[in-house]
Amino acid sequence: EIFNYLLDHGADSNATNKNGVPLLSLAIHKNDVEVIKSLLNNHVNIYNLDTNGISPFMKAVNKNYSDIVEFDITLINNNPLPPNPRNVFNGNSPLIKAIKHNNFEMVYSLLKYCKSNHVNLNIVDVYGNTPLIISYMRGYEEIFRILVEYVDINQRDIQGNTILHYAVEKKDLKTIKCLLSVGADVNALNKLGVTVLDRAISKGEYNIVKYLLLNDSINVNQRNKNWEIPLITVINDSHYSQVEKECIVEKLIEKGTNINLVDKNNKFALFYAIQNNNFVIVRILLENGA
Q1: Domains, the chain, ranges and CATH?
Q2: Whereabouts are the ANK repeats (predicted)?
Q3: DSSP 195
Q4: Are 98 and 92 in contact (CB under 8 A)?
């Protein structure tokens, strides 16, 4: 009551202590909700930085205080942003912090604000991981599902991997189906020259390979880091049974693979089929123009 009385009678809501820390930042640090609300209702400058350059908004995110963040967002929506809004929403990435807290309410509030105010959501953490990748690898399913609706599904991490690369790596067919249904790039190539299909083949995931090959956009002539097309990779791979290998080869041919493309050693798919004594594959290749 005394605090509110002072504010009502002209006390400066933007005052700082002797160390230069604003009242609002101190209140957030102590999680004093009543003082925070009093300050916010008395036109406190929500963009004031503390001595570490952290805004009250970011401090609330760091502390995982959903209600305060929600209230801050309401105020920000009703007040002009400072000249550089990046300091408020992108500097240390509140969205990434909220995801790492596994705080769905805070993530959802930030997503709605950013979409309404055209704030870029395609950010990465200090390790180069995207919001989607962070939520997926941590198993935060609810946050992952809402992020899929808001962010670029094909955003890449520091290694050039998309979320589809990660889903294939985890052998997660359910998520792969979900991602492809909302526009994930089935031909995504990372910085090491690994395609999504190539990764699936190398993992020995027959069902995932089959599903990827159902996609109308799949490029079955895309080369990997070894300059191999998927056809050559499959013929040389030891993960698959003879029946599985034949099925994949036939599907690749059906999808338009060029069976006469060579790898970096200037070898054809037919050469490797003969080398592996796989005479059924040899016959299939010869019947299709090898």
Answers
A1: 1-89 (1.25.40.20), 220-290 (1.25.40.20)
A2: 159-191, 265-290
A3: B
A4: no
Alpha helices of the chain — where are they, by DSSP H? 2-8, 23-29, 33-40, 56-62, 66-78, 86-89, 94-100, 104-116, 131-137, 141-150, 163-169, 173-181, 196-202, 206-212, 230-236, 242-254, 269-275, 279-287
Q: Tell me how far the alpha carbon of residue 56 is from its chain's centroid.
A: 27
pLDDT in tens, the chain (290 residues): 667 766 776 778 778 888 778 888 888 888 777 887 777 777 777 777 777 777 777 777 777 767 767 766 665 555 544 444 444 444 457 889 899 989 999 899 889 888 887 888 888 988 999 999 999 999 999 999 999 999 999 999 999 999 999 999 999 999 999 999 999 999 999 999 999 999 999 999 999 999 999 999 999 999 988 899 999 999 999 999 999 999 999 999 999 999 999 999 999 999 999 999 999 999 999 999 97
- Burial of 174 by CB count in 10 Å (0-12 exposed, 13-18 middle, 19+ buried)? exposed
Considering the entire predicted model, what is its pTM? 0.81
